[in-house]
Fold each of these.
Amino acid sequence: MAVTVKWQGGIAFEATSEVGHKVLMDAAESVGGNDAGPRPMEMVLMGLGGCTSIDVVMMLNKSQPGLLKDYQVDITAERAAGVPAVFTKIHVHFKLFGSDLNEKKVARAVDLSADKYCSVARMLEGSVEMSHDYEIIKEDRPKERFKITGLKGM
């Protein structure tokens, strides 16, 4: 795996993955940035959220086909006061929507992602106090999604 990060002027940087996906990172205006993109530490949390979400949704779609109607993960973090301002605590809160979801299968998917499958979580847990919980919302909330194009099977 490889990425390239190129300076875009000011203190903004564009990261490009080896397959060509791009993300613009920037800093807050208060430190000289233009607030044109997420900060690098936000990207770490976004990566964690994406990684664990892929795990959980894949497992639930396999064990309970069609029952997961919507999904969201909210991540909060605390950082050290000094420099470097590393994460000291991260909490992942899973919200799963579906009136017929089996709680034991949800708990198993969440735990397996947190404790075994999510590479980002496993990497962070060596230096950060990690915690997670979940809630099942017994409603079939309608999905408000953008369409992803270019994926096989879509």
Amino acid sequence: MSLLSRIRQAIDGLTEWIGRGAALLVVPLTLAMSYEVVSRHFFGSPTLWAYELGFMLMGIHFLLAGPAALKHNQHVRIDLLYARFSPRWRGLVDLVLMLTLAIPAVWFIIDRYGAFAWQAFETGERSGQSAWNPPIWPFRFLIVAAFGLLLLQMVATCIRCIEAIAGRRNYPYE
């Protein structure tokens, strides 16, 4: 097994592990929203924290689903032509698009949003969305981390594409 294949497998394993963990975020999200509904409608006492906790948990859950979807080839694509391509051509098309569009875009987001998250940390910025008003920097750093994982998974996908172009795998279905 080549070094690139081992790197790809390590990244795939990390993505799988984090993706399964992220799926568990649905549990506290559901509990928080259920508590809010019961508290608001049955006791007339809405919480100060459920709204913000809900959007933070859902946001991270959604962002961490991206790398897992990429790993499992679950992203939506219009495949009128793509489905007819051989595995080598699919690998080549995906590699070119990944290197020229996707990776630079995600790198740009990490760079810009990372600075934004750091500024929130330095200034002690708070959310300003509710009376709870928690510090926002942990959430922003989690967004940067999620895009970092997406970037790593894009590297693994590029390796998978290279393996397909070399004829060593039936991309992307293997």
